[in-house]
Amino acid sequence: MRRRHVERCQMRALGTLVVTGTLGLGAATASAQIKPAIEIRPPVVGDCVVILVPKALESGSIVDLELDYGYLPRHRVVDPSRNIEFPVRIPLQKGNRLRALVNGVAVQPDLLVGATPPADRKPEGTCDGGDEDEDEERETSFAAEAYLGGIVDTFAPDAVGNYQNPEAGARKTRMTFGIDFDGRLYGKDNDRVQFWVFAETLYGVRSADIDCSGQDKPPVCSDDPSAKALYILEHATSLEAFINPRLQFLRLQTHSESPVVLYVTGRLGFIALDGAPSVFKNHEVGAGFLLDGGPFQGSYLDFGWGKNELIADARWNRLKIDGTLVFSLERLLKNGATGFFIRLRVDNDLRGESADSIQTSYGMSFDLGGLFAP
């Protein structure tokens, strides 16, 4: 549910990494007996671009380029037949060291930039950074999603889901619909320090209020996501909304398939129930980590300390744990869903003075930005 962050190719000291062709990498090996997956075309002094030539690439693999011990953001192969160009703003100098890696493995010995090019060999590329502004405009700094799913209020008091008179042993479940957005206010895609604001709304209808067994079934029982969403909005018995700023300050595992972003965060939110005279504040501060790549991009886990007036008093005395696993469903579903999520939220009173809450959520997410794509 967290917004997925687009991989960028941007170099800090020497320039911006631009891919003019898509990549493809096979199972790499440095052994001289096996054909390398990709090779660096020998550069010379004055070149403003490093060109990688595919030899035995496979779609879905990862390419890294190291320049003087500084790694560039990795790239996943889409078209294994096209060359890859890495332009730089500062012309290459004699002795610059280059290394190409396929799936984290060096595919050939380190290559040093050669001497001045011969008369019939002009330096390749331009180092004027002319495409920099255009590249920056393509950065993704805002995304919005809608999602449909359900919540199981495990070990939660009746107030959490507005269960007025639950039968003994009855399941405490809700059908849910919501919208979230994630917007960046500071930083660029590959900056270590970034500041984001994430917000979410969650509408719930108790499953006990929905009867899909008869002939006259409500729209929420159909397979149409828009009909389900509209029904939940019109018949919601609970509403949760919150906004949380997120300061990302460190990236780990930057050369793995799933880089990890560490962050500190806060949460300002409320819970409203049908018939309640007022809303209940639900706030916290905390820290966590976010996966910024790979098949589970957008998954996160954070820990916080805060309060929940719905099930306790107004004191800040509660441990909050929030973890979400996200993965793509675009190839499996035909109803417009782009991902599936499973979420676990724990709201615990460590002192045992008030009730605890454990909620398990699940559902499908829909990219709202795709509705406005050209």
Structural commentary:
The protein is mainly β and about 375 residues long. The chain is about 5% helix and about 40% strand. It is built from 3 helices and 19 strands. It has helices at about 130-135, 160, 225-235; strands at about 40, 50-55, 60-65, 70, 75, 85, 95-100, 105, 110, 140-155, 175-185, 195-205, 240-250, 260-275, 280-290, 300-310, 320-330, 340-350, 355-365. The strands form 3 sheets. It has a 10-stranded antiparallel β-barrel. Strands 3, 4, 5, 7, 8 and 9 form a 6-stranded antiparallel sheet that branches. Strand 18 (about 340-350) and strand 19 form a beta hairpin. The chain starts with about 35 loop residues before the first strand and ends in a 7-residue tail after the last strand.
Q: What is the gist of this entry?
A:
The chain has 374 residues and is mainly beta. Helix content is 6%, strand content 42%.
Name the overall outline. Answer: elongated
**Rg, Å, rounded:** 26 Å
How is the main sheet built?
A: 10 strands, antiparallel, barrel
Share in β-strands: 35-45%
Structural class, from helix and strand content? Answer: mainly beta
Reading side by side through the largest sheet, how are the strands ordered?
10-11-12-13-14-15-16-17-18-19
Strands, total number: 19
How much is the average pLDDT?
79
